[in-house]
């Protein structure tokens, strides 16, 4: 990381009912439980243009998360750390203070269904990823296995390991049917770059740090400079030309916000 703040796009992923117990008190449609405010998990990304390929949402099971009232009358769920930063960026209903409505651990929201912008899956699920860092972004990561080697590795781990699914209370239908969606093509690498590099570098798991770093370095730069969109309204355009446009459309349609840290 260089000088100055990092800009993240926060993708607003709407929680679908039934809500987990800890959030039932918070949101829920009017008449069922809670105040009826829409509740969103907010996933931090540098690659908003890949959101066409979301298959899941990652949280760390042991990280502290918080649900807070936003200035816009919604409820956001993210790491407690990020919520404090957001309060200083005007997100909270209380200036400079997190307006906490519930405190929870990642494990409390695993298995919750979400509706997320751009992806062709109607419903995606909150799943555990053990490499989610508490000191970066919101502690909520959108899973795009076509283009993120970390995401693909973590998805394969969960698919392969029934014991891991069981440990975190992940049901088969939340993960087994979800496959990478081709979002962009990189000449020489293909339409599913993360899958290609996972196989080429013989990555073993989400903990295969060095190889995953190598894969990330490769896809990030090449994706930006050489990538061509395969889905959505910008099919055939270069990623470098549409990246900002896609981000702006998400923000203008109230499906994303900008966050700095
Ligand atoms: B990116 P940087 Cl398709 N812990 O979004 C671990 N990883 C995190 C995180 C956290 N707390 N918060 C954000 N991230 C991920 C999409 C994507 C991303 C693609 C390809 C590469 C990629 C879908 N996941 O990132 O250290 C998020 O994943 C490659 C680095 O601030 C976010 O963008 O540079 C990226 O890491 C931010 O990482």
From TrEMBL:
Belongs to the class-I aminoacyl-tRNA synthetase family. Signal peptide: none annotated. The chain holds residues 269 to 529 of 1194 of the full protein. This is leucine--tRNA ligase. It comes from the Eukaryota.
